Amino acid sequence: MCCISTSERFDKSYKVISNKELCTGYFELKIKSDDVIKHCSPGQFFMIGIPGVFLRRPLSVHDVRKDTVSFLYKVAGKGTKILSEIQFGELPFLGPLGNGYDLDAYKEANHVVVAGGTGIASVYFLASKLKKKGILYYGVRSEKDLMCLHKLKQIGWEVTVSTEDGSKGYKGHITDLLSEKLKESDVIFVCGPTPMLKKILQIAKEKNVKGFVSLEEKMACGVGNCQGCAVKIDGQIRMTCKDGPVFKIEQVEL
Fold it and tell me: Most buried of 37, 186, 233, 247 (most Cβ within 10 A)?
């Protein structure tokens, strides 16, 4: 596929350093890892084993620092609820998996990053690795769902926020702002819920904007065996976990 993969994959247990609640229902899990950090690319993910839960859960790489890898997640069901209560010990990890963003593409274009909801999880890692800084559009339901604003500004990004209830920034959807501001000279990197992605695909097509989109699909295996995360890419059926989750925006059909 078009994006960045890795030839190294690890299937082992790692020590939990911390698992803190950043805001209501959102947690950042940090693990100690000396071997895997240099193999992680923005947009890739790990399948994480949770005690008492049969299937592993996919979590995007949120940040990599020295000997630590972190994952940002929202408590959305039984598995993530159990995960949020783990404060020590070790957890089994498989990864890094999938294809990440191509950081070297469209170097001369203006970089525009778009995050919806927990899409900020992988987008922060991306923003920290892009050499050319730009504008990051971040849309959530309410001010209480916002994360990483200070960190993003620290690494040189201008952040534009929208909330559906108007509690912070623009009142409405982030796609409304994007539709007004996006130019043909921009390249966009997008991660968020499917309804948002559908709208952005339409905007990108209308404005002839290139870029990359990270798809959010339910995954059972993470390596393409179960065929449960099939999507249509450039007229063909692909697996989000194996062939993505990052694809060229002009190839995605939602």
Answer: 247
